[in-house]
Amino acid sequence: RAMVNELMAPALARGECEWMHDVANVVPMRIALRLVGFPEEDHRRVKFLCDHAVALLSGVNTPAQLAEHVDFGIELFAYVQREFQRHVRAPQDNLTGSLVQAIHAQGDDALSEAEALSILLQILIAGSDSSASALGSCVARLATEPPLQARLRRDPDSIPAFVEEMLRLEAPFQGHFRVTTRPVSLGGVSLPKGARLMLLWASANRDAARFEEPTELRTDRPGLRQHMTFGYGAHLCLGAHLARREIQIALAQLLAQTEAFGPGVGGAAHRPSVFTRTLTQLPLQLTPASAAAAS
User: Fold this and answer.
1) Which residues, at least 6 apart from 26, have a Cβ–Cβ distance to it below 8 Å?
2) Contact status, residue 262 vs residue 203, Cβ threshold 8 Å
3) Ordered alpha helix ranges (H), the chain
4) Can you give the pTM of this predicted structure?
5) Dihedral through CA 185, CA 189, CA 190, CA 194, nearest 10?
6) Residue 186: beta bridge partners?
7) Which of 109, 104, 136, 120 is nearest to 46 (CA)?
8) Rounded Cα distance, 132 and 172, in Å
């Protein structure tokens, strides 16, 4: 909450902001870096590198773009490897410190260094993207629907329900790739071992057999959390609870500190991708709340 307030202050003073650059991309990345014990001041560069790592799977790359993403992905891996070695030399009480302990452990608790680095990469890449993408989608929706915005401002307790519906309707990761480990029949289709699949969470989230009026935003919908955006079962996203709290808190602070906000000059723009649902820009015009209302 303090971080969001810090980032919002200059935007409120100006009466405008670029939501993705000023807030949405910053909060999740700084929190992720803080969790793993990496320098928080690196957040802009690390977010840039993480975006290129995600773009590797966009499905719309030219050969030149693919090469560029690989180059930046290599830089991200080198950064994580360098920071990990710093923690190996001087372990700290954080997530990376726990991973350092795990590479020195024996038995079932042991990890290889490659596994530890993979975990850190996943936390930074996924942690920086899911919350940022969802924050963009939520605020873009509110910016174009003043009555919905006003309703959430009057009733902040309904923000979590709104967030769940937006996670369902605008899944940050539209799906994930999987490989079959054995021959299997799925949906009446026979798949051989080694088949590559893309499981489309975004499609499942709008399945009319599961959700009544699936394209409508309904905060009173039964089973609000029964969407597939954060995976399921053993594959449930490790950071699902943290992502929800980041999104809810940022929205609550934005609504509390404004009387209204709407689209700014230039409009919203999405990253070209079949893999993610992410805004690259979201300019907003802000009307700050009066001092009495804000307090």
Assistant:
1) 3, 7, 43, 47
2) no
3) 2-14, 19, 26-36, 43-55, 63-89, 95-103, 113-143, 146-154, 159-169, 201-204, 240-256, 291-294
4) 0.92
5) -90
6) 189
7) 120
8) 8
Between CA 126 and CA 123 the distance in angstroms is: 6
Helix 95-103 to helix 113-143 angle (10° resolution) is 160
Secondary structure class of 177 (helix, strand, coil): strand
For residue range 30-71, list pLDDT tens digits in order.
999 999 999 999 999 999 999 999 999 999 999 999 999 999
Give the C-alpha separation, 248 to 124, whole Å: 20
How do 196-199 and 176-179 pair as beta strands? antiparallel
> Would you call 186 exposed, middle or buried from its count of C-beta atoms within 10 A (0-12, 13-18, 19+)?
exposed
Would you tell me how many other CB atoms lie within 10 Å of the CB of residue 291? 7
41 three-class SS = helix
Q: Which residue has the tokens 């980041």?
A: 246
Mean pLDDT calculated for residue range 285-294: 75
Q: What percent of the chain has pLDDT over 70?
A: 98
Distances (CA, A) of 55 to 117, 182, 237: 20, 29, 20
What is d(CA 217, CA 164) in angstroms, rounded to the nearest whole number?
Answer: 10
Place of tokens 């560069």: 45
With a CB cutoff of 8 Å and minimum separation 6, the contacts of 231 are: 176, 201, 237
What pLDDT shows up at residue 232? 85
On average, the pLDDT of the chain sits at: 94
Q: What are phi and psi of 42, to 5 degrees?
A: -85, 5
Average of per-residue pLDDT across 114-128: 94
The DSSP secondary-structure symbol of 20 reads: I
Count other C-beta atoms under 10 Å from residue 242's C-beta.
Answer: 17
Cα(32)–Cα(41) distance, integer angstroms: 12
Task: Let me know if 185 is exposed, middle or buried by CB neighbors in 10 A (0-12, 13-18, 19+).
Answer: exposed
